[in-house]
Write a structure and sequence with these properties.
CATH class: Mainly Beta
CATH architecture: Beta Barrel
Number of strands: 6
Shape: elongated
Structural class: alpha/beta
Order of helices and strands: EEHEEEEH
CATH topology: Cathepsin D, subunit A, domain 1
Radius of gyration: 18 Å
Strand order of the largest sheet: 1-6-2-5-4-3
Helix content: 10-25%
Largest sheet: 6 strands, mixed
Number of domains: 1
Distance between the termini: 30 Å
Number of helices: 2
Strand content: 25-35%
Amino acid sequence: MVDTLWDTGCHSSVVNQDLISDAFVDALRRTSVVTSDGALVLALAILSKSMSDATLEIETPIEIRPASQLPNGFSGVIVGQNRVINRLVYEQWPRAILEAMGETIEQDV
């Protein structure tokens, strides 16, 4: 299990470099953007987070940084405000509307 921090003060998402194999990090260094402070930036990553009743998959640019560049040497994934949290949408539709639209809904749901 990997610790995940939903950080409203972090603009982008970050994964700790110690969670990724050295071979993969080396390959990324040859093909990815490297920031001025040495972070690798993937053009696209898919974060998959299991919630209580569903799995949430988020496609987002993500930075890969060593623990020394993360708060308190955090080891895990930081989900940032700007590129992820602000884009999450929760929709809830009343049963009557879904049924009026032709959806078949089981009674025990």
